[in-house]
Design goal:
CATH superfamily: Glutaredoxin
Shape: globular
CATH class: Alpha Beta
Order of helices and strands: EHEHHHHHHEEH
Radius of gyration: 15 Å
Number of helices: 8
CATH topology: Glutaredoxin
Number of domains: 1
CATH architecture: 3-Layer(aba) Sandwich
Length: 119
């Protein structure tokens, strides 16, 4: 079963959940804040999607961090920041088992699931 990772009150996550529900898809929702974040899983995402793509530099959590935390970022420091502050992870992350997809748009999900049903 697929898992959608995010934060319940995030507007983009709400849109992804609504889309999955409208399509009658079976999924599990994992809230970073409520359910926590596993470092091993995050490292898998970083390997597959890249830490730069996962790091949300536009949100209020990022803007609230001290400048010293944002300086000289590399993969190791970015992972540590994302573990300490899960809200700085771009959302949602859709885990399909064999692959992960970052972000949401109805058009992308339509294409993604059309490929899934053919494959």
């Amino acid at each position: 079963m697929m898992t959608l990772y995010g934060i319940k009150n995030c507007d983009t996550v709400k849109k992804a959940l609504a889309w999955l529900n409208q399509q009658g898809m079976e999924y599990r929702f994992h809230d970073f804040r409520k359910d926590g974040l596993d470092e091993k899983m995050l490292r898998t995402w970083v390997k597959e999607l890249g830490w730069e793509a996962l790091l949300n530099r536009r949100g209020t959590t990022w803007r609230g961090l001290p400048e010293t935390a944002k300086e000289h970022l590399d993969e190791t420091r970015a992972i540590a920041l994302m573990i300490a502050h899960p809200a700085i992870i771009k959302r949602p992350v859709l885990d399909l088992g064999a692959s992960r997809h970052l972000g949401f748009s109805a058009e992308e999900y339509n294409v993604l699931f059309a490929k899934q049903s053919r494959g």
